[in-house]
Amino acid sequence: MSRVLIVGAGLTGSICACLLRRELQSKVQIVVWDKSRGAGGRMSTSRPPNASSHSADLGAQYITTTPAYAQSHHSFYSELLSAGVLQPLSCQIEGLRQKDDSKNYMTPLGMGSVVKHFLSESGADLFFEHHVTGLYRRGASWEVEKKAGGRETFDAVVLTMPVPQILQLQGDVEELLSVHQKQQLDGVVYSSRFAVALFFSPDDVFSFSWGARYVSDSRCICYIAADSRKRNLDSSGLGPSLVVHTSVPFGLEHLERDKEDVQPIILEELHRLLPDLPQPISIKCQKWRYSQVLTSVPDCPGHMTVLDQPLLVCGGDAFCHSNFDGCVESALSMLSALKASL
Ligand SMILES: Cc1cc2nc3c(=O)[nH]c(=O)nc-3n(C[C@H](O)[C@H](O)[C@H](O)COP(=O)(O)OP(=O)(O)OC[C@H]3O[C@@H](n4cnc5c(N)ncnc54)[C@H](O)[C@@H]3O)c2cc1C
């Protein structure tokens, strides 16, 4: 039995784990490590500190698919729809500019539920707070080093973290990359932004009717979602939640500042945009240093093979594009590499 390590319990890692289990079943032991305390990565859903409010999606907001992807990824959409993980997005989104023939979906339990669905289908051994710091080639295996100390050995390793975090790894990765591959990875560019989630008490009601709004008259804020309304949960008895995303120029300007120092600036601007907003009972701020991919790896099939034996592949949205369908494409392409190698 081959032992495969997938680094990253985000969307790409979870779909890759699920596909690998379905294709190779008991021929493979799948282990997933993530440095965070929970699954989701940039599709994570944040729980409020008290149980009286709804959760909030701090990263990805909803899933948009084109007719071509709706067809080629039909099995993924129908699986998530029939499991109740996805539902058509029905709320009003002010300022949304998109082609008429694309479809939007939301997740009643939050975007993290998509990732959790695929992880649970994968039957993988899942370990959180496992921060990979180095990869060392040892004959036909990879020895993988954790920040907390200790090393483990695997027959194949799949890296799904943002590209700059791949390039920071100690050990043999940098040496194994060809000059061309290094240039391709160095060229990947991400946007950066801050996200703020506000959690309200069950008595609070928003005075506006939209579920989400793209903001055009602010340098700071570009998007606001009445997150619980976006997910059709407003009448469920819990307090509503609201999410704010800052613009890319604002994110870049304040990138090196602590989120605690930036949060008041965002809240002041939110108050200007929505002066009637009730007082939240709690607030959470997140800095997304690597938010969405602006320039992906050029001429790439969805993954990059660093070494064939023992296999080391990199994937994720940077190897395709920065949304649900991009992660599915990357996971499918990594699956081909894994099947060929194992
Ligand atoms: C603010 C924002 C809004 C977005 N909006 C949308 C949207 O509306 N619709 C949409 O489809 N997409 C959206 N996206 C993009 C989407 O979220 C991403 O394309 C997708 O989540 C990327 O998944 P991934 O698995 O490739 O990477 P990630 O989600 O980044 O997963 C990588 C994982 O690796 C872990 N990791 C990193 N380094 C290490 C290490 N050294 N050791 C162990 N673990 C490590 C991380 O903790 C993370 O969990 C948005 C993203 C952001 C940030």
From TrEMBL:
Alphabetized Pfam families for the sequence: Amino_oxidase, NAD_binding_8
Under InterPro entries, the record lists:
Amino_oxidase, FAD/NAD-bd_sf, RNLS
**Extent of the signal sequence:** none
Residue ranges annotated as transmembrane are none
Top-level lineage group: Eukaryota
Q: Would the keyword Flavoprotein turn up in this protein's UniProt record?
A: yes
Q: What UniProt keywords apply to this chain's record, in alphabetical order? A: FAD, Flavoprotein
Annotated GO molecular function terms are:
oxidoreductase activity, acting on NAD(P)H
Query: Flavoprotein: is it a keyword of this entry?
Result: yes
Which GO cellular component terms, listed alphabetically, does the Swiss-Prot or TrEMBL entry include? Answer: extracellular region
Amine oxidase domain sequence ranges: 95-332
Supply the name of the protein.
Answer: Amine oxidase domain-containing protein
**What is the organism field in this record?**
Amphiprion ocellaris
